Amino acid sequence: MSSNKRPASVIGNIVSQSAQLAKRTAVETSNGTPGSSTAPSNPFLSRPTPPEVAIKTFLIQARSTARKRPPTQRNQPVEIEARLGTIVSPYGSHDMRALSSGAKQIPIKGVNRVFHAFVCNISPSDGQNANAPKTNFEGGITRSNYLKWTSGGVPTSTSESATIKSQLSEVEYVETVFCYLDQTRINFPHNPPQSNVLGRGHQERKEKLSIVDIALPAAPYDLRLQLASEVPIENRRLESVNNIPNGWNTKRVKRRRSYSRIDKSFAWRVDVTEVTSSHAKQGTQPAEVGYEIEMELSSSRTQELIQTSDEAAAHKLAENLARQLWFMLQQINPTHDVLEVDEFLQVHPDTEATKLAIGQCGTIKRFIESGCQSWRSAIAPGGGAAEASDGGECKPPRNFIGCMPVNFSRHNIEEVQRSDGDESNNGSSSVGYYLSEKTDGVRYLMVFTGKTVVLIDRASHETKKAFQPKLHSENPFSNILSAVKPGTILDGEVVVHRKLRRPIFIVFDVLANSASEPILHLPFEQRLRHLKAASFVKKDAGVDVFNSASVNDPKVPLPLVRKNFVKRVDLDHLLSNVHEERGMRIYKHGETHHHLTDGIIFQPNMPYVCGTDVNLLKWKYLDTVTIDVEILPPKPNFGRNQSNDNEDILRVGVMGEDSTTVDMTRYLRLPSSERHRLEADRNENGSKIAEVGFDPTTGEWYYRTMRPDKVAPNHISTVLGTLLELAESLSTEELRYRMSIPSGTRDTYAKDVRNMQKQLLEHQRRKNKAAAGGSR
What we know:
This protein is of the alpha+beta class. The chain contains 16 helices and 32 strands. The strands form six sheets. The protein has an eight-stranded antiparallel β-barrel with strand order 1-9-8-7-6-10-11-12, surrounded by five helices. Strands 14, 15, 23, 24, 25, 26 and 27 form a seven-stranded mixed beta sheet that branches. Strands 16, 17, 19, 20, 21 and 22 form a six-stranded mixed beta sheet that branches. Strand 25 (584-589) and strand 26 (593-604) form a beta hairpin. Helix 1 (2-22) runs antiparallel to helix 3 and helix 3 (51-67) packs across helix 7. Keywords: Hydrolase, mRNA processing. Residues 432-620 form the mRNA capping enzyme adenylation domain.
């Protein structure tokens, strides 16, 4: 028994050092931002580790375990494999992932460090962590992820993926497996794989010798590393499936694609498998279909790792194998290694300034409601609160005053084409659209009170809370505060610069240049001039608030960056700056723009609208089209007459007319791994609004993120518009083609597509004819 426990303590001793340092996290972050991913209540944050170090440590542990087996077992084959799945926490009212989404900042010796991996479970357990909470591991991925990576083999959406695919060999394999309660199983290969003809079976017993579960919160799935023995069992009666012993409880049909490097330079093989499971006593119930991704170390490298007597050589080999595996994981299960926006912000400590900033937003709203006739600023021209005797008024708005877009549809294409602005009119009557990439950040209104700068989010009017960058100094905006006129309101988004790994504020509109100069009633073309000229800066201030050097200056916690706008015929050029990297779309322009993007904004040359603007249009990449739903309280006896009446069903709804709720539970079901992620994030930040999307290619819903910045779900009209957008499937290629058509030129897109489709059909006919001729 001691030989079995000792290897586990190897990894336990290594992670215990970081665990002891990280335990102070609970004390050091207890006064942090609500919803921070370093919430002290989660014990699974206590063992952070670099992922390659964790993998190497496990490989050394596996080597030790295999070498210490009794002599009678040393000739039994062993395998080392890694599996993707979800580590499920033992806590919470619902099954949830052990760690919430996103990279984590952990204070180590007083310095915040970003970690992407956390050891959650070691089996067999070492003595030091015998009382640690135990997690469960649910293997498997969603159907959408399975098809994304396997429907055409390895994806080639990026040049990097295409290069990788050219270096891989692909083998298809199908087998039927009968599983027994005593851990034995009988495997029958299909020969050929596409047929139902079963070859001779072989029987074996698989025993798990060592397991380490590693949480990867910044990736879609977690990781299980496992060492297991496979003991063959002699059975000469397995020529036919009809001869198998009685007593099997599960039958699994595995359809697998295996990928390995052609040049054999990688020792790991990737197995992507569709598994159809049925039970012996299942009756008329349909079979269950699941999807798995596993990476197995080659038998030759496994034996080399175990048998070498040179410890230094074994450690060097383990390090190389760990590096290989982590590289593969980054292609299949990419880690978003940049912190989320909320990690860089904190609640604004000045409650009076927060009240004043929210009140200034109320001033904007009442100004619009008065037909732009009544302006009673909450902020005095010199800063601070305006006196009532001077016409000041500080009342919060009833809702968020930011302008909100509606979904772009195919019929809007001609509308945008016809509305090209005429620059010769000096902007006085042009009604064209300005186009920009849709920044995938968090929306804020930036209000300058004179004393400080306050970030107002969508919920501030209800929560009475606002935000500012985490303090680098007493005033995080000391570099520009004195130069900007009090009462200025900028509209924009906080987004993370992916290259520099720091937040920036993308400014896309100006609502007020000062406490006495609202400009939101002007056409956008004029507001854009104010933005480019930075008219809200005091004369002779001598400060460039959009200085590009600020983006690289760590002393500036939140640099201001202008959003780029183009005429609609330049959309193709604009989108040429969008690059796909590890499953993410990133807009790159110069040194200032390097952030996530998820679509296009069509900005009309009209006055600013507080609330929904039917002329402000948004188009999103189809795989990012989402809706915001509200998580509803559980409904007793839901599905009483259905087979799933004992399930823990997630009830969701959207907003109906007159503030009613439209229950969407029947139509919106998340796969278990997506539900686990949602529950972990909800448990952390307490939000009741979730952003979810629908994949029309698989008919599967997916979870994206919780929205603590929102207090209400989408309206049912928005949901219907989103579903219509998915049904229309307006592609990037069509949009770029049709927007690039010069003004006054006929749009022949439909005709051109039909001609190209005919050419494609003729191409296929020629291929079929050539193939038929060659077979004669």
